[in-house]
Amino acid sequence: MKEEALEFLQKLLRIKSINPPGDERAVALEIKALLGSYDIEAQVLDFAPGRANLVATLRGQNGGASGITLGISGHMDVVPPGQEQWSDDPFSPTVRDGKIFARGASDMKSGLVALIFAMVALKKENTRLCGNLKLLATAGEEAGSVGAKELVRAGYADDLNALLIGEPTNGEVVHTHKGALWVEITCHGKTAHGARPHLGINAILHMTKLLTALSSDRFKMRYVEHPVLGGPTINIGVVRGGVKVNMVPDRCAAEIDIRTVPSQNHAEILKEIIALVESLRHELPDLRADVRVTNDLPSVTTPADHPFVHLVKEAVTQVLGTAPSISGMAGYTDAAVFVAAKPDLPVVILGPGDPRLAHQPDEYVEIDRFLRFIDVYKSIFVSYLGT
User: Fold this and answer.
1) How far apart are CA 1 and CA 270, in angstroms?
2) pTM passes above 0.85
3) So what CATH class is 179-297?
4) Which phi and psi angles does 151 have, rounded to 5°?
C-alpha cells in the first residue's frame, strides 16, 4: 500500500491547484475516486467554479454510535511556484536522493495523502473503532481559509470532538499558532503629467510615508509576549501603484500581513492602523487613504497538557522511537476557522513536511518520512477511536 500512497501523492502533485485561483476540484475528485475504491463514503462539495471541499467519513462500530468523531484535515491548494527558478518542473514530481520535489510536496499534499492512506489502512484491516473518523479536505487555505469557512457554515465541523491537521511541522507536535490579520491600504491621489508633478497628488509618495510610519516606532501594537509564539510580526507583502512613468500616480495599494499572538485583539489593531493614517494627515493634508481587512483569523491554542496533545505525542513516540517536541508555529492553519466556530475544540497540527520549505523553490518531502507518517496517523486514529 505504501507504493500506492507514493504514486497517489505524485498524482496529486501533478495537479496545478494553485491559489489563486485554486482549482482544487480536480484534487477532490481524485481523492473521492481513491476512497470510493475502498468503499469509504466521500462527498465533493462545490462552492464556486473549480472550487470544492471534500468530506469523507469512516464510520465506527454500529455507525459510530459512541458519538465520538475525530476530524482530520488538510488543504488541497498550493501557492504559485514563484519567480525564482526551480531545478525541475514544479508540477512534474521529481524523485531524487530519497525525496520528492514538487510544489506542495511539503505544504501540504504529503500530509494530506498520509492522512488519507492511514484512513484507508484502517478500512482495509477492518479495524474496529468506537467512533467516526472524518476527513475534511479543504480548498483555499492559502488565501483566507475560504474552504474551511464553507465547511463550518454548512455544519460539517459541528460533530468534531478533536481535530488533527497534517500541515508541515517536521514531526513536531504543534499545539498553538499565530493569528493572521491581512490589511489592504489604498492611497488616492490626482493624475498629472510627469513633467508637471506639482499639478498632481502622488499616491505612491503618500504610500511610502505611510508604510515608513507603519514600519517604525510610530506603530506600536499592544501585546503580551507569548511563552511559545513570542511577539507579533508585520510584513509589507505587496505594493501596487502607477500606470506610466510619465504620469503622476493617482492610486497606490499595499497589502500588509500581520501575524498576531493570543493577547492581541484584531479590532484594536485595525483601530491603531486607522489612527496612524489619521495622524499623517497633519503632515500630508492631501492624504486620502482607505483601510480594508482581507483576512481575519484568530490565533489558536490548545493547552500543552491537554489529553489530546499527550495522546498525539505518545503515538509519535511509539511509531518513530523518539519523543517529539511540543511547539508552536508562526503560520496560520484552517484550525483558526474551526476553533473560531467551536472554541473548545482541541487541535493538534502534525505533519511530515518541513515548514522551512513551504513556499520555497525546490520544495520537497522526504519519502521515508512521508511513508512513516501513515503509520503515525494510523496510531493516533486507533488511540483516539480504538475499542
Assistant:
1) 50
2) yes
3) alpha beta
4) -65, -45
Is it true that 2-177+299-385 and 179-297 share their CATH fold? no
d(CA 93, CA 97) in angstroms, rounded, equals 13
Calculated CA dihedral for residues 366, 371, 377, 378, nearest 10 degrees: -170
* Integer Rg of the chain from CA: 23
The residue among 120, 123, 152 whose CA lies nearest residue 136 is 152
Phi then psi for 329, rounded to 5 degrees?
-140, 150
**Structural domain boundaries in the chain:** 2-177+299-385, 179-297
Lookup: cell for 205: 509618495
pLDDT, averaged in runs of 10, over the chain (387 residues): 96 97 96 98 96 96 78 98 94 98 98 98 94 97 95 97 98 98 98 97 98 94 96 96 97 98 97 96 95 96 98 98 96 96 97 96 98 98 91
- Secondary-structure class of domain 2-177+299-385 per CATH: alpha beta
Q: What are phi and psi of 200, to 5 degrees?
A: -115, 180
